[in-house]
Amino acid sequence: MASSSTLYIIAILFLQLILAFGNVSPSSRLSTTNNNNNPWLSPSGEFAFGFRNTTTNFFMLAIWYNNIHDQTIVWSAKDMNNSNNLVLAPTGSQVQLTSGGLTLTNPQNESIWTAQPNDIVSYGTMLDNGNFVLVNNKSAIVWESFKFPTDTLLPNQSLELGATLTSRFSETNFTSGRFQLYFNDDDHNLMLSPLAWPTQFRYNFYYRIEVNNNSASSSLVFDESGDIYVETNKNGTTRIKPQGTQWKNLDLDPKLYYYRAILDYYGVLTQYSHPRDTKAKQGWTIMRYVPDNICIAIFNEMGSGTCGYNSYCSMENQRPTCKCPYGYSLIDPSNQFGGCQLNFTLGCGADNGEGLNVKPEDLYEFTVLTNVNWPLSDYERMQPYSQHDCQQSCLHDCMCSVVVFSNQNCWKKRSPLANGREESGGNLVLIKTRVSPLGKIGASPSTNLKKDNQVNPILRGLLIGSAVFNSILLAAVVLVTLLKPKRVVVGTTLLETNLCSFSYDALKEATWGFIEELGRGSFGIVFKGELKAATSCNVVAVKRLDRLAQDREKEFKTELRAIGKTCHKNLVKLIGYCDEGMHRMLVYEFMNNGSLANILFGQTKPTWNQRIGFALGIARGLVYLHEECDTPIIHCDIKPQNILIDEYFTAKISDFGLAKLLLADQSRTKTMIRGTRGYVAPEWFKNVPVTAKVDVYSFGAMLLEIVCCRKSVVLMESGEEEKAILTDWACDCYMEGRIDALVENDQEALDDIDRLEKWIKIAIWCIQEHPEMRPTMRMVMQMLEGVVQVPNPPSPFSFSLIP
Ligand SMILES: *[C@@H]1O[C@H](CO)[C@@H](O)[C@H](O)[C@H]1NC(C)=O
Ligand SMILES: *[C@@H]1O[C@H](CO)[C@@H](O)[C@H](O)[C@H]1NC(C)=O
Ligand SMILES: *[C@@H]1O[C@H](CO)[C@@H](O)[C@H](O)[C@H]1NC(C)=O
Ligand SMILES: *[C@@H]1O[C@H](CO)[C@@H](O)[C@H](O)[C@H]1NC(C)=O
Ligand SMILES: *[C@@H]1O[C@H](CO)[C@@H](O)[C@H](O)[C@H]1NC(C)=O
Ligand SMILES: *[C@@H]1O[C@H](CO)[C@@H](O)[C@H](O)[C@H]1NC(C)=O
Ligand SMILES: *[C@@H]1O[C@H](CO)[C@@H](O)[C@H](O)[C@H]1NC(C)=O
Ligand SMILES: *[C@@H]1O[C@H](CO)[C@@H](O)[C@H](O)[C@H]1NC(C)=O
Ligand SMILES: CC(=O)N[C@H]1CO[C@H](CO)[C@@H](O)[C@@H]1O
């Protein structure tokens, strides 16, 4: 049998000899400097062997598809002596074919890689199937690249016992990565395992094809028709196909398509196709893959899972996507799969230099996530336990990063969180985060109230970076979506309101697969999208809610009804929603000019008149929410990030009506405060009922920001610390009669000093410590409009009863 197949190969090679232009004779050489023009090509020109650049000044010896636009690499030279790592050839390196084989030398003429068979080589050739072979004088193959695969298999290539496929490190980094396909020594089962990077220690498998016989000879065959299976001689010759819902039987046509199978860098074994016709639409299409869902397939005590540590994974468009929980950011912003880091220290009090008397309540709070889990990071389980006790327990435990609460069960989890995945089941996941990056300023409760909790600029940069990366990653998918004939996407209307109900798929299509991130808020991520109606096309903002509190799901529609009935010039209009399975989304009209925060704290300041318009508009919107609409709505999170500006510079309040849905328990605890620090009324921290006056407080804090065009909390240089907290500083300036200091060089504001003084007074009325001292929003509006007089306000803290 062996001899007949050898004969066959000889016959094939003979054919190739006749078509001889693909052959490379000894003493031929390629160098990194001349390579681009003349790699060694296969007879048809479809495959090329030569140098490809990796980073600046380094190249790799590779084989690639030469006729397709991507020039996809299918093989690269690996250093078997060094964890199979990619051989990096500096500029000036050469590869030379001699009778001894192939030798890669660096510019110092030192050998850095060789392919040296135990036979004399007559010539080498790049075959049309992508195999580079060295042939002896009896026309037998003595070395072939197919026997040393990297991460890719091609039709007519098989993986034998002892050989492996190792994924690359990332999309563009060909260094050996974190996953491996291999035959297990004990039973010859074909396995997929994560590797402990960089040593290549294999963790427990997450997918296998069972052979279960260690005396059977087995190989993974990618046959010429494009089919893939394990062939074993157990019980005669048997073919075993991969099993999985995403591994389908397909009609294959290798005459029309290139096929390749690759162990992708996120651990999925995928078969792709690409049309051979250069006039057809270019690009690789996913045909089938195992495992079905890599996010949940890996279940090891050790190792991070596909997304890296502290991250969580979900399948989108057939590929895994990784996200960082709130308070965490990507370690490497260019690598979505590289894991997340805490952007704060999770310490045990004194470690942080904060002193032993600081209460954890003042340092940490919890952010809610649902349908996410890190099933293997538990270190403690309490049962029966209440949600409140569960939270308190984590709060006072400096090891604890996350608690999961479900059904009187409380699981405490520690960092690094591993194997994070989206998972239905309605667990309440509470992520412990630092109250504020400015936690070191002071420790007394009253200063704590004024800390700012905005996402800081660097963190935001990282988030945007990851969004950009996501876009690149999914660009191919978008392309596919865009090229599909456009369907008309319209929803069905919810009775009594004009709200449309959208399916998840419709919104996925409208947002091109949730690609273009507009921002991240306390409720989830907002994406840009387009709704195509029969006659028009509306740009929308789709808010994907990711933290609906437990038991609030039933109320989702009730709340929507209330929001849907609102209609006011100064409120962002809700167009529709999605309530399908675990997906909850809100579709809003899109606001051209972004948020008030962007405008106020951006490069060019808005004019004084524009700012006056914003303040009046917001006040009117709040009066409507509090008094004029059918069901009064307390916003609970008024801040510049939640005010959006349309093309005519009208300020519109967004995110109203959501507070109830997201608060697990309306009698809030200190750690579950809904609002954002800096704008949060003091009664949130006390045992008194929360009323519409919380919005008045936040409005007051924001009015100062609008007037002064600065953030409520900024870090100041030494000597100017008194300016750090705007509410305090404004009160000081007012009491000392120097309100002009608040607007510094803003001539427009100084020219309108009467209004300036009046509005500062209104703001101070709004931020009174005691809610009953604050005016209603209607009174605030009337004072702003000049309809009623503004009395002199008391100092906000003058009636303060320190608890
Ligand atoms: C490789 O070279 C091409 C052409 O010179 C260049 O556009 C590309 O950026 C280089 N790639 C890397 C990773 O340096
Ligand atoms: C691997 O190491 C052995 C001995 O250390 C050496 O003879 C061989 O050339 C090395 N192989 C490669 C590809 O560098
Ligand atoms: C490189 O080294 C080989 C032997 O190690 C030698 O035969 C060859 O002449 C050298 N080439 C150059 C350019 O120095
Ligand atoms: C092949 O080379 C060997 C020496 O390496 C020689 O003995 C033999 O005659 C050659 N065979 C052919 C067919 O040229
Ligand atoms: C590759 O092609 C040759 C000739 O058609 C055939 O004998 C061999 O079995 C094929 N190998 C695989 C793995 O399909
Ligand atoms: C690839 O990733 C590894 C691990 O992070 C890194 O050490 C190496 O420098 C990277 N290589 C390139 C070419 O970026
Ligand atoms: C294992 O494979 C060998 C080789 O094909 C075969 O002889 C033997 O019967 C197989 N054993 C079992 C248990 O299937
Ligand atoms: C081997 O074949 C026999 C007869 O077809 C069958 O009963 C047996 O289950 C097979 N064994 C395995 C391990 O597939
Ligand atoms: C602990 C930590 O890394 N905190 C960082 C969070 O982000 C801000 C702004 O980017 C940094 O200043 C902190 O050092």
Describe this structure in words.
By secondary structure, the protein is of the alpha+beta class. It folds into 5 domains: 17-148, Agglutinin, subunit A (Orthogonal Prism), CATH 2.90.10; 149-292, Agglutinin, subunit A; 350-458, Hepatocyte Growth Factor (3-Layer(bba) Sandwich), CATH 3.50.4; 500-589, Phosphorylase Kinase, domain 1, CATH 3.30.200; 596-785, Orthogonal Bundle (Transferase(Phosphotransferase), domain 1). The strands form 12 sheets. A 7-stranded mixed sheet has the order 40-41-45-46-44-43-42, sandwiched between helices. Strands 3, 4, 5, 6 and 9 form a 5-stranded antiparallel sheet that branches. The termini are far apart. One 2-acetamido-2-deoxy-beta-D-glucopyranose binds at residues 343-345, 437, 456, 458-459.
Question: What is the topological layout?
Answer:
Layout: H1 2-18, E1 23-24, E2 29-31, E3 40-41, E4 47-53, E5 58-65, E6 73-76, E7 78-79, E8 85-86, E9 89-90, E10 94-98, E11 101-105, E12 111-115, E13 121-126, E14 132-136, E15 141-144, E16 152-153, E17 157-160, E18 164-168, E19 176-183, E20 190-196, E21 201-202, E22 207-209, E23 218-222, E24 228-232, E25 238-240, E26 257-263, E27 269-275, E28 285-290, H2 294-297, E29 312-316, E30 319-323, E31 328-330, E32 340-342, H3 360-363, E33 364-370, E34 372-373, E35 378-382, H4 387-395, E36 400-406, E37 409-414, E38 420-422, E39 428-434, H5 445-448, H6 457-483, E40 492-493, E41 500-501, H7 504-510, E42 517-520, E43 524-532, E44 537-545, H8 555-565, E45 574-580, E46 583-589, H9 596-600, H10 608-628, E47 643-645, E48 651-653, H11 659-662, H12 693-708, H13 726-735, H14 740-743, H15 747-751, H16 753-766, H17 777-785
Parallel strand pairs: 29-38, 41-45
Antiparallel strand pairs: 1-13, 2-10, 3-4, 4-5, 5-6, 5-9, 7-8, 10-11, 11-12, 13-14, 14-15, 16-26, 17-23, 18-19, 19-20, 20-21, 20-22, 23-24, 24-25, 26-27, 27-28, 29-30, 31-32, 33-39, 34-38, 35-37, 36-37, 36-39, 40-41, 42-43, 43-44, 44-46, 45-46, 47-48
Bound molecules: 2-acetamido-2-deoxy-beta-D-glucopyranose (9 copies).
